[in-house]
Design a protein that fits this description.
By secondary structure, the protein is an alpha+beta fold. The chain has two domains: 32 residues; 181 residues, Domain of unknown function DUF4426 (Immunoglobulin-like), CATH 2.60.40.3340. Strands 5-6-7-11-10 form a five-stranded antiparallel beta sheet. A four-stranded antiparallel beta sheet has the order 9-8-12-13. It has a three-stranded antiparallel beta sheet with strand order 1-2-3.
Length: 234
């Protein structure tokens, strides 16, 4: 083979490798970027990496609990305040561990144990009342007993979560009784993961039978949940 032909063949081989390399890079980028921005996966969808702020444990917990960020909703009706807190997995780990710095391995293990469900806190509190919430506007000792039983067992059936076309029953339920310590009651809630294939708003429904306020809705919007920051770990 003449030298000129060998040079042409070599050039073609180099060009072929270059084209293959460029196509491979393009395919990789299409799965890892949106509009040219690198993305990271969070439990509520995909968000641009530079918008996923990294926060230490204390700041992360405060951010989740701040109603302005969309993970906590509040409604006041007469003298009662109803609030619902959506709890990301890392947030639950922070509350359970009660440490300023958490190892990444611990967080990953704990999150893995929680991932089959989604979790919320439902809280009912009084603005102007000293004493146990369940004694508010009480008419008899029998009514108090009925309220305790309802909060402990019956209320679970009056709570649902709606995501798109899915209406989810409350699968995990725990009433934290405070007795006379504070005019507040907190109920821990858990729902299965929705079958929705795309991100949907989450609407927590609670029908209040105790204080006659009726149906109360808390909507957690997808655009708010996608702003979930990343937890800084060691």
């Amino acid at each position: 083979m003449e030298k000129t032909e060998m040079n042409k063949l070599g050039a073609l081989i180099i060009l072929s490798y270059f084209i293959f390399f460029m196509v491979s890079c393009a395919n990789t980028e299409s799965t890892d970027t949106i509009a040219g921005e690198k993305i990271v996966e969070v439990e509520n969808g995909y968000i641009p990496a530079e918008k996923a702020k990294v926060k230490n444990v204390k700041d992360y917990v405060q951010w989740i609990q701040d109603p302005d960020n969309g993970f906590k909703k509040e409604k006041t009706i007469n003298n009662l305040t109803f609030s619902a807190q959506f709890k990301p997995y890392e947030y639950i780990v922070c509350l359970e561990e009660k440490k300023d710095i958490l190892p990444d391995s611990l967080v990953r293990r704990k999150v893995g144990e929680l991932k089959d469900m989604q979790y919320y806190d439902l809280k009912i509190s009084l603005k102007e009342f000293a004493g146990e919430l369940l004694k508010y506007q009480l008419t008899s000792s029998q009514q108090y007993t009925e309220r305790v039983n309802y909060f402990a067992f019956g209320m679970q059936h009056d709570i649902h979560l709606v995501e798109g076309t899915d209406t989810l029953a409350c699968e995990l339920y725990h009433f934290e009784r405070t007795f006379d310590a504070a005019p507040t009651s907190t109920i821990l809630l858990g729902f299965h993961i929705s079958n929705q294939k795309t991100a949907e708003n989450k609407t927590l429904l609670f029908y209040d039978r105790t204080f006659n306020t009726g149906l109360i809705k808390f909507t957690f919007r997808t655009q708010e949940l996608k702003n979930l920051p990343k937890l800084k770990t060691s």
